[in-house]
Write a structure and sequence with these properties.
single chain; 3-stranded mixed sheet; 77% helix; disordered N terminus
Length: 306
């Protein structure tokens, strides 16, 4: 209770992306277009997989779950950022800041587990094709999303539990356009060096560890694929290249945020925009352009909707 009584900060002020009105206007148009496109693309994938019987397979089920989570990735930071680009005074309430931090890490945790599940699905499909439907049973397909939501929730909740009761008595300025643990913790009125290290090391370890596991697994799959027939190898490599592209796009900025010793503020903001606005748009583009079956189904879904 003593810590709570010292917390007099009721809101945080964002310095935003830039002080130039012209650049802010450009970023407003750029971000709005990508936000609408990512929401449309990911919604279309979820809709297509749900209503097309030809896509009722484990691979597409996991892809639909990833697209659903990408809707959350787009919506946690982007709407507030786009709105603030037209405002001179950019603020967020203390509760809103904590809520944003919780959902950022919750969604990152969910997507990390889903990407690992998709790598496992491709491994079984390519390396154990005769046992694919047995291993990737409906029960297993449900288990992966449930596990991802539980792990994401626990990861975010545990980290937030260490910082939510920190005393904040000023200053309240964040040199960013969204709330996250590193900047949030630094504004506390107590020595937080150990806490900063713990939170950063936790997120950094999870990001780097998951990335290494995924890359190693895909390299192993590629080596096995090359031993198969050329036609099967070409199709599998096309699918795997899409998965690897998404993994790099997702984990690249995360690893930079939590492992780079002296991050550049401008580069940090650029990567944050990329992660929040561009990556959720690129994911459906990468998966649909690399998958003929998905492209055909999406065209039919759009024609049906029209």
């Amino acid at each position: 209770m003593e810590g709570k009584n010292q917390s007099v900060v009721s809101e945080f002020v964002f310095l935003g992306l830039t002080n130039s009105w012209h650049i802010q206007l450009f970023l407003f148009v750029f971000s709005s277009m990508f936000y609408v496109a990512s929401m449309t693309g990911n919604s279309l994938i979820v809709f297509t997989v749900a209503f097309d019987p030809h896509l009722h397979s484990p691979m597409y089920f996991l892809l639909a779950n990833l697209s659903f989570i990408d809707l959350g990735v787009s919506s946690v930071v982007s709407p507030k950022m786009i709105y603030d680009l037209l405002r001179k005074h950019k603020v967020i309430t203390f509760r809103g800041c904590v809520t944003q931090i919780f959902f950022i890490h919750f969604i990152v945790g969910v997507e990390t587990v889903l990407l690992i599940a998709m790598a496992f699905d491709r491994y079984v499909a390519i390396c154990k094709p005769l046992h694919y439907l047995t291993i990737m049973s409906p029960k297993m397909c449900i288990l992966f999303p449930v596990a991802s939501w539980v792990i994401g929730f626990m990861h975010s909740l545990i980290q937030l539990a260490f910082v939510v009761n920190l005393p904040f008595c000023g200053p309240n300025v964040l040199d960013s356009f969204y709330c996250d643990f590193p900047g949030f913790i630094k504004l506390a009125c107590v020595d937080t060096h150990k806490l900063e290290f713990m939170v950063t090391a936790n997120s950094g370890f999870i990001s780097v560890g998951s990335f290494i596991i995924l890359i190693i697994s895909y390299i192993a799959i590629i080596i096995i694929v090359q031993k198969h027939s050329s036609s099967a190898s070409s199709k599998a490599l096309s699918t795997l290249s899409a998965h690897i592209s998404v993994v790099i796009l997702f984990f690249g900025p995360l690893i930079f945020f939590y492992t780079w010793p002296s991050p550049s503020i401008h580069l940090d903001k650029f990567l944050a925009i990329f992660e929040a606005v561009v990556t959720p748009f690129l994911n459906p583009v990468i998966y649909t352009f690399r998958n003929q079956e998905m492209k055909v189904s999406m065209k039919e879904s759009m024609q049906t909707a029209i």
